[in-house]
Amino acid sequence: MQTENGYKTICDIALEIEAYLYRYPEAKDTVRGIAEWWVDGKCGDVKRALELLIAHGLIRKQGCLYGRAPHEPPHANT
Predict the structure, then answer these.
(1) Distances from the Cα of 32 to the Cαs of 3, 14, 39, 69, 73, in angstroms?
(2) How far apart are CA 56 and CA 2, in angstroms?
(3) In sequence order, what are the residues at sequence separation of 6 or more whose Cβ sits closer than 8 angstroms to the Cβ of residue 47?
(4) 74 phi and psi, to 5 degrees?
(5) Residue 59: which residues within 8 A CB-CB, separation 6 or more?
(6) Which residues pair with 66 in a beta bridge?
(7) I want to staple 28 with a disulfide (CB 3.0 to 4.6 A). Which of 40, 58, 63, 67 is the partner?
(8) Could you tell me the sign of the dihedral formed by the alpha carbons of 22, 16, 56, 50, in that order?
(9) DSSP category for residue 58
(10) Model confidence, pTM
């Protein structure tokens, strides 16, 4: 998605990253790889979108790779 002036917003990029990870839940990549292959965006904008997703607990960073945050199974209350 692009704005009237043809630029993607950080939220647009974050949504594209989420959609990609929904389709490919095991995917992991660098900022550059995500910018070039997942969302066709600028590295700086992609980094800001990734930081937004990390802040909301939707993805995590391992070394230089970003991917879906693992969800822990609920603990039994016994």
Answers:
(1) 22, 15, 10, 19, 32
(2) 23
(3) 31
(4) -65, 145
(5) 17, 21, 50, 53, 66, 67, 68, 69
(6) 29, 61
(7) 67
(8) positive
(9) S
(10) 0.80
